[in-house]
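Q: I have 116 residues here and want to know how they pack in 3D. Can you give me a structure?
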Amino acid sequence: QVQLVESGGGLVQSGGSLRLSCAASGRTFSDYAMAWFRQAPGREREFVAAINWSGGGTKYTESVKGRFTISRDNAKNTMSLEMSSLKPEDTAVYYCNMVIGFQAYWGQGTQVTVSS
């Protein structure tokens, strides 16, 4: 059974920085791509960033390019999202995601709140 646990969320002022982490267990972490999604109140969950199995390939949604950096440490079974120049519109619950075959796994989410 795959378990994903996010941490690192909090309250930060506009322009500030936060680092989110996702700890994975239950499967061979390095076999799979990973991703971050987020969901703001009243809105659908949206893709934020993804990283391939080796960490050599990444993809970002347009609104976070140049501000967020996704990375992973396969030796520690962790994935991170370094967020800088945060804006109020980045406020959301951030979720860690792993897809194995046709099964998507999600963490419980971590709240990020950016005050203006």
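Q: Anything worth noting?
A: The radius of gyration is 13 Å. The chain has no helices and eleven strands.
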